[in-house]
Specification:
The structure holds three protein chains of three kinds. By secondary structure, chain A is α+β, with helices and mostly antiparallel strands. Chain A folds into three domains: 62 residues; 124 residues, Immunoglobulin-like; 93 residues, Cytochrome Bc1 Complex, Chain D, domain 2. Chain A contains nine helices and twelve strands. Chain A has a five-stranded mixed β-sheet with strand order 3-2-1-5-8, with helices on one face. Chain A has a five-stranded mixed β-sheet with strand order 4-10-9-6-7, with helices on one face. In chain A, strands 11-12 form a two-stranded antiparallel sheet. In chain A, strand 11 and strand 12 form a beta hairpin. In chain A, helix 2 runs antiparallel to helix 3. Chain B is mainly alpha-helical. The chains are: A alpha+beta, B mainly alpha, C mainly alpha. Chains in contact: A-B, A-C, B-C. The interface between A and C is large, with 92 and 123 residues. Chain B: This is Cytochrome c oxidase polypeptide III. Chain B: Its EC number is 1.9.3.1. Chain B: Its main location: membrane. Chain B: Keywords: Membrane, Oxidoreductase, Transmembrane, Transmembrane helix.
């Protein structure tokens, strides 16, 4: 039967995480089965040996045994604690991405996954085509990941709670509106793997499925640098994320205050990313993604020392999750002297082309 | 079970009045435990958000009317006193005092609800409501101060849900007290069997105590708001 | 030591022979429909609950049938996605809130707790009937929500889907769950007060039947957890009606907060469902193996332990919902700890069978089924409590299978064990021995075929709540559906033979299983005030099977079909017998 062949004993393992999972999974399976089968054998033996026909009908008055109770309290507890400790180690690896991981933003919405690569390349990884706009339908493809290289995925949802599950990587993370969640993988095997939405999200929940394609690192680099669509996918390219963020920076009037001029009403953002920001009222914070996002959504929370708390909060209706990612990418790319003024006299920063790629579907090369 | 222990107020399935009263009191205490957990969910949620958005919550709280709330607090504390006096009257078998004390309690509770009604009316008038009806002025004031108007509305959600559910409890309490008045009036609360009064008073004190938590959390949270901002 | 159940009027009142036709009992005392609808008799209220939950069990089962049929094909073409989503939600809501939660506490707890502790009624009879009305009002809301188009949120009702996106009847459905929660609180409160204050003289805490201990622990959870879900459901309704609320992410609210509040109830709620079943098993295993329970105190305290620790691990449903790393570590550890008392119970049950004299009537078969299936359910829970494995297994069919092994394999088995064990007492009739054994065997077999494949599917990543799925899962899904149809037949059989027994069954004696519990001292069916002689004085523990019931001067009949000679019970294994050296009282 072909369907039987399609379900091997152990599901495909395509990442380091999957190997860690399997080792732990089989440890628990074997030890707990040993206990379970032991109890079954005892049960069966007692049931046969002490059935009414085999006995006189009289039974001894056995009330219990402290020694036995202690044994079967402490021994299972010890075994369970080994599960716990090993499980915690696997989880620790799974939830803490390495520093050098390539970051990809993924946005969940009813009913599709929209991925944004650092270079602005976008792809919709599955979903229900009936719910999509024409341009979204055009960019349905696969999420391409590099082999043997850590990738960090940052998620947010635009509507309800979703969950990004990749069985081949033994990985899963809820995608929640209003907060970011992260997961990371290091794929170890070329091929294509299922992506499922694992958190019930409405009518087409079961169509919110897609494919991940793991390619050689070199192929991935070419894809990232050349805006080349990958073979077999229809990834659409429309300019880099930082470029898009730059447009938003101007459009949202951020430039009015963060103008990098002596009369600016707000801190200069050039070279901000990764630096240490002293806060009003003491303390300091590293300006990472989380801090920048928080400062846009809730600017009053951590005000930079020496500045007035005058920045308005930008909520989802003003800056969508996707736009926020772009703005963050832009702020990340800002180097000394690259902040544009209102007339855009200054050149755009590196990695943020001033010329927007016009063609929605470039075919090979630039 | 000998028939001599039978009192007209003893229910058939109890051995004696002592057991009956013990059951009634324990039952009410357990019910109060469920009430505490019921409000506990709300208090827990409030705590989380207050820690996340302290400025917005204080700002929103500063827009509530503390005069109404103070008057209402006095009403409720006094009503707890009269409720306790009612137990004493019941114990002494003083029917007139019992009815009088219960009526005063019910009147104070009603006064609380009336004041609450005026307060809600004022809130609506000022568009101090979450959702599309939210006051544009307050929203702008919040934005000017660099606060998120959304979270100001979040506070108002708590305000309405918490005071609303508390109000429902007050109304149920008034019903129970009036039922006691009727029972006392027709002489159904003899001094040897006043546990119904005791049980209702336990409930009433709880409703009162919950208000004593709501008052600081909702009204006093923003009392010092103007001072630091 | 003896189980003496004596009356104050002296030894002359000892062993009353059972009259051939029962006298006035709680069933035939009056016949009008009003005498049932306005009854305050705990036994009649138990019967009202029994009838109601049986209806919801059938309705919930029908919804499961739609789900399983649709999964026969990968493209799920039998019903639309919307209909499927509504069917699994109806299955969850009806089965959990209107069958599993009230099943044992409201039916058997109501009926038997007063008898087991030797009193005439629960502490608050009017509250008791009120709880049934509240339950029915909640049920009408929920059924109306289902019939008027259904709810498509899943029983977990996560916002913002339930508050903003869903186009279905969320409000009446949530209202139904909310209202029925109060009925659960009322029943729990009634049972707790009764157990605290109304035990017969001599019925100390150490002599309570383990069923009472289990229901006491259950009631504790019902009292303390239900209010929290009640407030969360209120907040869901407010948010849906007003379009804004405290879980709304657009104004800074956090939808994950709902999950915390929801699971603070709903995790303990699974213990509301399973603990009573565990109580039943302790009664039945001892009776049919003619043994004292092994480790009475260990079992009793493990029930309380489960109830208490059960409150501290709700967030293990949220390991992938972005909770903090340290919170995950803590909740995983506590989840491991709650597995220990369950393991203790299983070991003690197995040890109880040691050197017993076991017969295999239907209640015993269901109980053994409980133990066998619960072991699988419990051990697979460990995979989900372990952080490293939960990441992959969360929200897959592995969870579905685990949950059903505990809830259906455990609790529904326990429910059927209780039903078959106490049916003669409740109705005064015996059912077909052969058919009931067949039903037990078919149910256990069908259960394995249904749910074992789901573990494999889940391990391979098939998500839950999917009306259609990749083709490689088809074989296992077909197998599961085949098992479900066997299971369905198994569940229908008791409906037939139990109903027939009401009309054609042999009349039951007061104690057809020769059990030691006080409830068997009442006639079958019991008289209106339960006991003919009040008050009882209880002088020893609940499971003195070793001493032999007849030795205690009760002169009770033997179980039907039993081959042993009552005379053998005396003598050698009496209190002074050889068992003394191995008698070791725990705790």
């Amino acid at each position: 039967m072909t369907t039987m062949n399609m379900l091997p004993l152990i599901p495909e393992m395509a990442s380091d995480g999957a190997r860690h999972f399997e080792a732990l999974f089989w440890y628990i399976t074997l030890t707990s089965s040993a206990v379970g089968i032991g109890v079954y054998i005892a049960l069966l033996y007692f049931c046969v040996r002490y059935r009414r026909g085999q006995t006189t009908g009289s039974t001894p008055r056995i009330l219990g045994s402290v020694r036995l109770e202690l044994t079967w309290t402490l021994v299972p507890m010890f075994v369970f604690l080994t599960y716990y400790a090993w499980g915690a180690m696997v989880y620790n690896k799974a939830v803490h991405p390495p520093e050098d991981a390539t970051e990809i933003f993924v946005i969940g919405k009813q009913w599709m996954w929209k991925a944004q690569y650092p270079n602005g390349q976008r792809v919709i990884i599955g979903g229900n085509p009936r719910n999509m706009s024409e341009s979204e339908r055009q960019s349905i493809g696969k999420l391409v990941l590099p082999m043997n290289r850590p990738v960090k995925l940052t998620f947010i949802s635009e509507d309800v709670i979703h969950d990004f599950g990749v069985p081949a990587f033994r990985s899963k993370i809820d995608v929640i509106p209003g907060r970011y969640s992260q997961v990371w993988y290091q794929p170890t095997k070329l091929g294509e793997y299922h992506v499922y939405c694992d958190q019930y999200c409405g009518t087409w929940h079961s169509l919110m499925v897609g494919k991940i394609k793991v390619v050689e690192g070199k192929e991935f680099d070419e894809f990232l640098s050349g805006y080349a669509p990958l073979q077999g996918t229809q990834n659409a390219v429309d300019g880099s994320l930082a470029h898009e963020g730059r447009q938003l920076f101007l459009k949202l009037q951020c430039i009015n205050c963060h103008s990098a001029t002596p009369t600016g009403k707000a801190p200069v953002l050039e070279g901000l990313y990764g630096s240490r920001v002293p806060l009003k009222g003491g303390g300091a914070e590293i300006a990472d993604d989380a801090y920048i996002i928080e400062s846009i959504r809730r600017p009053r929370l951590k005000v930079v020392d020496g500045w007035e708390a005058i920045m308005p909060a930008y909520d989802e209706t003003q800056v969508s999750a996707e736009e926020l990612n772009a703005v963050v990418a832009y702020i990340r790319s800002l180097r000394k002297g690259t902040t544009p003024d209102r007339t855009e006299r200054f050149p755009a920063p590196n990695g943020a082309p001033t010329e927007r790629q016009q063609s929605p579907q470039p075919s090979g090369g630039k | 079970m000998s028939a001599s222990t039978h009192s007209p107020v003893l229910k058939h399935h109890f051995e004696d009045l002592g057991q009956q009263h013990a059951c009634e009191r324990l039952g009410m205490w357990m019910f109060l435990a469920t009430e505490i957990l019921f409000f506990g969910g709300l208090f827990g949620a409030y705590t989380v958000y207050r820690l996340w958005y302290p400025h917005e919550f204080e700002f929103a709280s500063s827009h509530l009317n503390r005069v109404f709330a103070t008057v209402n607090t006095m009403f409720l504390i006094t009503s707890s006193l009269t409720m306790t006096l009612a137990i004493r009257s019941a114990k002494l078998g003083d029917k007139g005092a019992l009815v009088r004390n219960l009526l005063i309690t019910a009147a104070l509770a009603t006064a609380f609800m009336v004041v609450k009604g005026f307060e809600y009316a004022e809130d609506f008038h000022e568009h101090l409501v979450p959702g599309p009806g939210f006051s544009a002025d307050i929203g702008k004031e919040a934005s000017d101060k660099g606060l998120d108007p959304g979270k100001v509305q979040l506070f108002l959600c708590f305000y309405y849900v918490m005071t609303g559910i508390h109000g429902i409890h007050i109304i149920i309490g008034i019903g129970c007290i009036l039922w006691l008045v009727w029972e006392a009036w027709r002489g159904a609360i003899p001094p040897e069997n006043y546990s119904t009064v005791e049980v209702v008073s336990l409930y009433w004190h709880l409703v009162d105590a919950i208000w004593l938590f709501l008052m600081p959390l909702l009204y006093l949270a923003g009392a010092g708001y103007g001072a630091h901002h | 030591m003896s189980i003496a159940v004596t009356s104050h009027s002296g030894p002359a009142a000892a062993p009353p022979p059972e009259p051939p036709t029962p006298p006035v009992n709680y069933l035939n005392v009056s016949h009008t429909i009003w005498s049932w609808l306005f009854t305050v008799d705990h036994k009649r209220i138990g019967i009202l609950y029994l009838v109601s939950i049986s209806i919801f069990f059938v309705a919930g089962g029908a919804a499961a049938g739609i789900v399983r049929l649709n999964l026969l094909q990968p493209d799920g073409a039998i019903v639309s996605e919307d209909a499927y989503n509504r069917a699994f939600t109806a299955h969850g809501v009806l089965m959990l809130f209107f069958f599993l939660i009230p099943a044992v506490p409201a039916v058997f707890g109501n009926f038997f707790i007063p008898m087991m502790i030797g009193t005439k009624d629960l502490a608050f009879p009017k509250l008791n009937i009120a709880s049934w009305y509240v339950f029915m009002i909640g049920a009408v809301c929920a059924v109306w929500a289902v019939l008027a188009g259904g709810i498509d949120t899943g029983w977990t009702l996560y916002p913002p889907y339930s508050t903003r996106a869903s186009q279905s009847n969320v409000i009446p459905g949530v209202m139904g769950a909310f209202i029925s929660g109060f009925s659960s609180i009322m029943t729990g409160l009634n049972i707790m007060v009764t157990v605290h204050k109304m035990r017969a003289p001599g019925m100390t805490w150490g002599r309570l039947p383990l069923f009472v201990w289990a229901l006491y622990a259950t009631s504790l959870i019902q009292l303390l957890a239900t209010p929290v879900v009640a407030i969360s459901l209120v907040l869901i309704m407010v948010e849906r009606v007003a379009g804004i609320g405290i879980f709304d992410p657009t104004i800074g609210g956090d939808p994950v907060l709902f999950q915390h509040l929801f699971w603070f109830y709903s995790h303990p709620a699974v213990y509301i469902m399973i603990l009573p079943g565990m109580g039943v098993i302790s009664e039945v295993l001892t009776c049919f193996s003619r043994k004292n329970i092994f480790g009475y105190h260990a079992i009793a305290w493990s029930s309380v332990g489960i109830a208490v620790v059960g409150f501290l691990l709700w967030a293990h449903h949220m390991f992938v919902a972005g909770i903090s790393f340290y919170a995950a570590l803590l909740f995983s550890l506590l989840s491991m700890l709650v597995a220990v008392p369950s393991a203790i119970k299983v070991f003690n049950w197995v040890a109880t069978l040691y050197r017993g004299s076991i017969t295999y009537q239907a209640p015993m078969l269901f109980s053994l089924g409980f133990v066998v299936l619960f072991i699988v359910g419990g051990l697979t829970g460990l995979f989900l409590a372990t952080l490293g494995t939960d990441i992959h297994l969360h929200d897959t069919y592995f969870v579905v299978a685990h949950f059903h092994f505990v809830m259906v394999g455990g609790m529904v088995m326990g429910y059927f064990a209780a039903l078959h064990f106490w049916w003669p007492k409740m109705t005064g009739r015996m059912y077909s021995d052969w058919w009931s054994r067949m039903a037990a065997a078919i149910i256990i077999f069908g259960f394995f075929i249904t749910f074992i494949p789901q573990f494999v599917m889940g391990y391979h990543g098939m998500p839950r709540r999917y009306p259609n799925y990749p083709a490689e899962f088809q074989f296992l899904n077909v197998m599961s559906t085949a098992g479900a149809s066997i299971l369905g037949i198994g569940y229908l059989m008791p409906a037939v033979y139990l109903t027939l027994s009401l009309f054609f069954g042999k009349r039951a004696t007061a104690n057809p299983w020769s059990a030691t519990g006080l409830e068997w001292q009442c006639p079958s069916p019991p008289v209106v005030h339960n006991f003919e002689h009040m008050p009882l004085v209880v002088v020893c523990g609940p499971y003195e099977y070793a001493l032999g019931v007849d030795q205690l001067g009760r002169g009770l009949p033997e179980p039907p079909g039993s081959q042993d000679d009552p005379a053998h019970r005396d003598g050698v294994t009496g209190p002074a017998g050889p068992m003394h050296k191995e008698t070791e009282v725990v705790g």
